[in-house]
């Protein structure tokens, strides 16, 4: 029979969620990876950069895999529990991790970086990205698409209106309004599978925008219904939406 509802929920509720790694889900949940290979793209760009910035670095997991860091490497992070994790992960690269306030301007001078990257930013401040980029510099970002894992959100919350935010077309318009030139845009829909309710609980605690304000106590009846559904029908399937956007700041005349 396996573990019951209470045991699985307690497991997902007790597991740590600091950083931005998803190793705890191994063997219990899966998500397809985007075809473009963001970490590989970042590593290649970092190898030729002089000064680079990673915005919303999480626990520094992607940046930590860069084999050839630039001369100057800086990362920002706004969620306090992630900051010490990122500093530990990025210490071998000689990177500086700067704790910032959510939605605050980037604490750097104009034209500080020739490369800015960001994986799954909470919100992209396009004017700030443009400001800190050097002329000819590049912004490369993998972003959350509209209605990502909407199926899971609706399983907990009920029917939702069509997503109004995170559309790739909005990102392109905002980049252009900030004076950047969009040179690449790719989209992907990725099958995401949850094999038990414990993984759902852990995911909702970590990816907080899926069900805003989520707690086990507040949503226990919905979790119990989803647990019964998984037991009766098999793993729960949702679809993550991602897009890759690359933009450049025009070179000075």
Automatic annotation (TrEMBL):
Sorted UniProt keywords: Methyltransferase, Transferase
Domain of life: Bacteria
A single BP term in Gene Ontology: methylation
Domain Methyltransferase type, chain residue ranges per copy: 53-140
Residues passing through the membrane, by range: none
Any Pfam family: Methyltransf_11
InterPro entries xrefs: 23S_rRNA_MeTrnsfrase_RlmA, Methyltransf_11, SAM-dependent_MTases_sf
GO MF assignments: S-adenosylmethionine-dependent methyltransferase activity
The name this protein goes by in its record: Class I SAM-dependent methyltransferase
Organism: Micromonospora craniellae
């Amino acid at each position: 029979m396996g573990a019951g509802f209470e045991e699985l929920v307690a497991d997902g509720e007790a597991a740590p969620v600091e950083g931005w790694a998803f190793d705890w889900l191994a063997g219990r949940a899966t998500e397809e990876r985007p075809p473009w290979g963001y970490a590989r793209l970042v590593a290649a760009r970092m190898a030729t950069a002089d000064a680079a910035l990673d915005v919303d670095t999480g626990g520094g997991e992607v940046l930590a895999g860069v084999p050839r860091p630039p001369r100057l490497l800086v990362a920002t992070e706004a969620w306090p529990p992630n900051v010490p994790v990122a500093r530990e992960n990025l210490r071998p690269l000689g990177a500086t991790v700067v704790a910032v306030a959510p939605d605050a301007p980037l604490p750097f001078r104009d034209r500080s970086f020739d490369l800015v990257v960001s994986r799954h930013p909470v919100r992209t401040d396009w004017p700030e990205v443009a400001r800190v980029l050097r002329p000819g510099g590049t912004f490369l970002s993998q972003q959350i698409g509209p209605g990502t894992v909407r199926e899971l959100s609706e399983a907990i919350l009920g029917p939702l209106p069509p997503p109004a935010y995170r559309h790739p077309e909005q990102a392109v318009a905002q980049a252009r309004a900030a004076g950047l030139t969009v040179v690449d845009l790719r989209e992907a829909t990725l099958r995401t599978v949850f094999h038990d309710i414990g993984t759902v609980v852990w995911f909702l605690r970590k990816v907080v925008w899926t069900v805003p304000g989520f707690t086990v106590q507040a949503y226990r009846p919905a979790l119990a219904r989803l647990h019964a559904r998984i037991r009766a029908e098999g793993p729960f399937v949702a679809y993550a939406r991602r897009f890759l956007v690359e933009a450049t700041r025009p070179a000075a005349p």
